[in-house]
Amino acid sequence: MEVVAHRGASADMAEHTLGAYLEALEVGADALECDVRLSADGHLVCVHDRDLRRTAGARGTVSTMELSDLAELDFASWKRPWSDLDDEAPDLDPRLGGVLTLRNLLATVADYGRPVELAIETKHPTRYGGLVEKRLMETLREFGWAGKESPVRVMSFSHTALLRMQRLAPDLRLVQLVEKAHHWPMLRPIVPRDWIIGPGIKQLNLHPGLGEHLMREQRRMHVWTVNTEKNLRYCQELGVEAVISDKPATMLRLLGRK
Questions:
Q1: pTM for this structure?
Q2: The predicted structure's pLDDT at residue 127
Q3: Residue among 6, 16, 43, 222 flagged as catalytic
Q4: Average per-residue pLDDT in the chain?
Q5: How confident is the model at residue 87 (pLDDT cuts 50, 70, 90)?
Q6: 127 in helix, strand or coil?
């Protein structure tokens, strides 16, 4: 079972920061997960929310700000709000806590000393529509990661976005994320058999029939966000291929790999 670091080692470090991803790599995560949005000047940045209040303590939305403006924000302090009062707290390198572009994350993975996969989620709806996937494809081509041998898979709750990605890169692996169990009957007839299915662990727990159905149909499953031993064992019972976790080190230990 592959262990995927959800927004990096986000239980311990501020999500989507370089620090969180370096920590995930250090503990041995097999893959890194990130969300991508477009800045106003066309850069793909790793940010989950459309607005900046939660992770950067700032007003405004990602899509209306240029990369230079985003680079002035602190995306890490919210994770340790009392650190300024702790004389023994280590100073955080600004490079590890600022906005992270997808290009920088890909370069980090490309230069790392072992194979690492990437699960990239395109966020929708967005004012830029299909431009998100177009920019993603252009970036992947720069790294030579647009074909069958790519370490990248693309995920989305938007079926339309995944169809768009399939047209741009027919050989790339795709993951149809499923937000609610009752969405699956509508998605089932239109999701190709070679796509991976990405249900949330909460929905699998609330609606056991979903997991059982996917298992009977031999659908490949990547499940989010798995942080406990109980949920990990349930995923093993379902034959899940990958668990996306805020706690990659814990998952690796429970799997006997640390």
A1: 0.95
A2: 84
A3: 6
A4: 95
A5: low
A6: coil
In this structure, the number of other CB atoms found within 10 A of the CB of residue 110 comes to 12
Name the 3-class secondary structure at 90.
coil
Instruction: Report the distance separating Cα 258 and Cα 201, nearest Å.
Output: 23
**Nearest residue to 181 via CA among 196, 193, 198, 195:** 198
| 87: β partners | none
User: How far is residue 2's CA from residue 61's CA, in Å, rounded to a whole number?
Assistant: 33
Q: Cα(17)–Cα(14) distance, rounded to whole angstroms?
A: 6
Fill in the amino acid letter for 125: P
Per the document, the length of the chain is 258
Is 6 a residue of the active site?
Answer: yes
Is residue 216 within a helix (H) or strand (E), and if so which, with residue range? helix 208-216
Which pLDDT score, from 0 to 100, does residue 88 have? 58
Task: Categorise residue 34: left if φ over 0, alpha if ψ from -120 to 50, beta otherwise.
Answer: beta
Token readout for 103 is 């290009």
Distance, CA of 26 to CA of 42 (rounded, Å): 31
82 pLDDT higher than 60:
no
> How far apart (Å, rounded) are the C-alpha atoms in residues 121 and 31?
13
pLDDT tier for residue 123 given thresholds of 50, 70 and 90:
very high
What values do phi and psi take at 119, rounded to 5?
A: -115, 110
Catalytic residue (one of 16, 48, 124, 207): 48
